[in-house]
Design a protein that fits this description.
Radius of gyration: 44 Å
Order of helices and strands: HHHEHEEHEHHEHH
Strand order of the largest sheet: 2-3-5-1-4
Largest sheet: 5 strands, mixed
Number of domains: 1
Oligomer: single chain
Length: about 270
């Protein structure tokens, strides 16, 4: 009887152990997880086109204009002209971003000028030119792009905030990770668009003007002639100073001549 009871008890305990062991996710839990993920999308996602369409009209804000230009002219003197341009920069709160010179004959400056003073700056610069060779000014209206990027940043920021709120409603670690993954993707998109917006702000706040100027040909010819004249003058001065130096040395020369003749006489 004892031998019969022992196997029976063992079988019962084994069945009890398996029945209490860990179970895999049942279909109801899988469906609940899918339903939660669907709810995330439905609650959080906002159609960007709808938000952008409700953003400010281009007529409601100051227009964003990219201003660029190039000016080329003839001047009397490179150094004087450069200083005059820098004085104009101080007057209009502009600054030189690049500067290059070629053989002392020509120069190029890249200037950054406040957009609201751009036209006045160009007029002042044109007044110091002896001969204005070329002037090309361009304007590109980026107001719509500026508003579009600005609105999309707001849309995605609101969407990101919704995801952060939904994390509080998550019931499992898996649900939290899914929400955080979506939020991180949004954060990357927001930072990218913010970089573009900052670029547009900077480019529309300051216009760019490339200024090229060179000395006139007659000035260049005169300069060469003057250099040749200076070279002859310098050579003549060297000869003059050598002659004067020899005069200062006459006692030594006289002693050398006397010594030479005495030695020559004794040699005979």
């Amino acid at each position: 009887m004892k031998n019969f009871i022992s196997p029976t008890i063992c079988s019962f305990l084994i069945l009890l152990t398996f029945s209490c062991g860990p179970k895999g996710p049942n279909p109801e839990e899988i469906e609940a997880s899918k339903a939660f993920e669907s709810t995330i999308v439905q609650k959080a996602e906002i159609h960007e086109d709808e938000v952008v369409s409700n953003s400010k009209s281009t007529n409601e804000i100051a227009r964003k204009i990219l201003k660029t230009g190039e000016i080329s002219f003839v001047c009397e003197n490179l150094s004087v002209t450069t200083n005059n341009i820098k004085d104009i920069c101080v007057k209009f709160k502009a600054y030189v971003s690049k500067e290059s010179e070629r053989s002392g004959l020509s120069k190029e400056l890249e200037l950054k000028i406040p957009s609201d003073k751009y036209d006045l700056f160009v007029d002042s610069l044109s007044s110091i030119a002896i001969n204005l060779e070329s002037k090309n000014l361009n304007e590109v209206d980026v107001t719509e792009e500026f508003l579009d990027v600005e609105a999309r940043i707001k849309t995605k920021s609101d969407l990101e905030a919704r995801y952060r709120e939904l994390i509080k409603q998550a019931k499992t670690i898996e649900e939290i990770l899914k929400i955080e993954e979506r939020a991180e993707v949004l954060r990357g998109e927001i930072e990218s668009m913010q970089g573009r917006l900052n670029f547009l702000k900077n480019q529309t706040s300051y216009g760019t003007l490339t200024v090229r100027f060179h000395v006139k040909s007659s000035t260049l010819t005169t300069s060469i002639v003057n250099e040749i004249k200076d070279a002859f003058d310098g050579g003549w001065k060297i000869i003059k100073y050598l002659f004067i130096g020899l005069i200062y040395l006459w006692p030594f020369i006289l002693v050398a001549l006397v010594w030479y003749f005495i030695k020559k006489k004794h040699a005979k």
